[in-house]
Amino acid sequence: MSGMINIFQPALGERELAAVREVFESNWIGRGHRTESFESDFARHIGVDPANVTSLNSCTEATFLAMRLAGVRAGDEVVLPTVSFVGAANAVAARGAHPVFCDVDPRTLNPTVDMVRAVMTERTRAVVVLHYGGVPGDIVRIAEMCRERGVLLIEDAAIAVDSRVDGQACGTFGDLAVWSFDHGKIVVTVDGGMLHARDAELVAEARKRAYFGLEQTSGYDQALRSRTRWWEFEISSFSRRSVTNDVLASVGRVQLERLPEFMRRRREVARHYDQEFADLGGMWTPPPLPAGQETSHYMYWVQFEDDIRDDVARELYERGIYTTFRYPLLHRVAAYGSRAVLPGAERAAARTLLLPMHQSLTDGDVEKVVTATRDAVRTRRAASRRS
Ligand SMILES: *Cc1c(COP(=O)(O)O)cnc(C)c1O
Fold first, then answer.
1. What is the CATH number of the domain that holds 349?
2. Residues 288, 212: one domain?
3. How many Cα atoms occupy the beta-carbon half-sphere of 301 within 13 Å?
4. Which of 256, 279, 300 is the C-terminal boundary of a domain?
5. For residue 212, what are the domain limits?
6. Span 93-117, mean pLDDT?
7. How remote is the CA of residue 8 from the centroid of ligand 1, in Å?
8. At residue 173, does pLDDT exceed 90?
9. Atom nearest to 84 CA in ligand 1
10. Does the structure show a pLDDT above 70 at 219?
11. Ligand 1 pocket mutation, candidates 130, 170, 180, criterion most atoms within 8 A of CB
């Protein structure tokens, strides 16, 4: 909405436009060498070989594909924290498998290894975890535990594009991982996703499945190898079309180059909020990062001692500041048929609010958020204590 301070916002500008113009002028807008370059740039960014990643048209599509690559079948169980993205649970259910929800820590909204373990059974085929707010969480121990039990780990690294543990990128701890470049993320291609697999053969399989299940990559490639009748098909699976294209990839390449600059601003904003809210009674800022962890600062979440979250959200909205809560609890969604009792997540979902966090926030915006939040918390808290 115009005039509102957004919670998330893309930072797209002249450099991205120039990159798009160049693609238009080249007359090759489909999947081509720019897409390949974006994939290698991204591989370098997370410290893996380009053969271990492939781009897709969305993160959700990448998640659906990951379930297939993980061999998730009807009747299998897949464990996810109840604070997960709805598309991840859909990807499980769409295979005829059962999403099994685990609890999260009420302060970090990430699951601990014990919370994941507590709901695993002999039918658990895979575990899917995201990195709440961009914070890696217990990923190292969860990966270790999954490896020991022979269960596949899929990282939903959609919002962890620059998150690390001891220098290792989130998305490289599990067997498979997915990232999002949609309009609300940090690195934006307008729409798009990336998939990483530890096993490069799975990526080769993913590439075929992302393009109708065709064995050959393109007619041009076939012709180059001087085969005749390069227009003929060989099909390895009855798949859809989930590839991205050079227009979007060219935007992604510029965005990846700008990521360090984005991250500098996000860190500044987070530090500023931390300082300004340190002495505000009744409201907590995100817990300090464990040693060795780096976050993408995708979300800045605050939590209230009293039951004032919804009132604070409304008051901020009236003052031109948009806030929200992510991700609404999935064990509460009737369609998944869960009867889990998850008190940590319930507590978090009732008290947590996300404040505006993006690299285009001006100092003035940040001041406005700080002042309005302090005012709202003080008045609402006083009112709730009186009643
Ligand atoms: C945005 C998001 C997705 C989905 O990404 P799309 O590219 O929009 O499909 C998946 N997981 C998480 C945690 C997200 O925030």
1. 3.90.1150.10
2. no
3. 25
4. 256
5. 14-256
6. 98
7. 13
8. yes
9. 13
10. no
11. 180
Answer yes or no: do 156 and 44 share one domain: yes
Pocket-testing residue among 85, 90, 251, ligand 1, by greatest number of atoms within 8 A of Cβ: 85
Check if the beta carbon of residue 161 is closer than 8 Å to that of residue 150. Answer: no
Is the same domain home to 326 and 358?
yes
Q: Does one domain contain both 270 and 234?
A: no
Confidence of residue 215 (pLDDT cuts 50, 70, 90): confident
Are residues 108 and 126 both part of a single domain? yes
- A 10 A CB-CB count for 365 gives 17
Query: Is residue 221 located within the same domain as residue 267?
Result: no
Q: How far is the CA of 123 from the centre of ligand 1 (A)?
A: 27
Percent of all residues in the chain with a pLDDT value above 90, rounded to a whole number: 93
Say whether pLDDT at 227 is over 80: no
Nearest Cα neighbor of 77 from 345, 328, 340 is 340
**Which residues contact ligand 1 via a Cβ below 6 A?**
58-60, 85, 87, 130, 156, 158-159, 180, 182, 193
Q: What's the total number of domains in the chain?
A: 2
> Which residue type sits at 119?
V
C-alpha of residue 130 to centroid of ligand 1, in Å: 10
Nearest residue to 323 via CA among 333, 308, 334: 308
Q: What is the whole-number distance in angstroms between the Cα of residue 158 and the centre of ligand 1?
A: 5
Same domain assignment for residues 249 and 268:
no
Cα–Cα separations (whole angstroms), residue 121 to 95, 125, 149, 358: 18, 9, 10, 40
Of 236, 256, 276, the residue at which a domain comes to its end is: 256
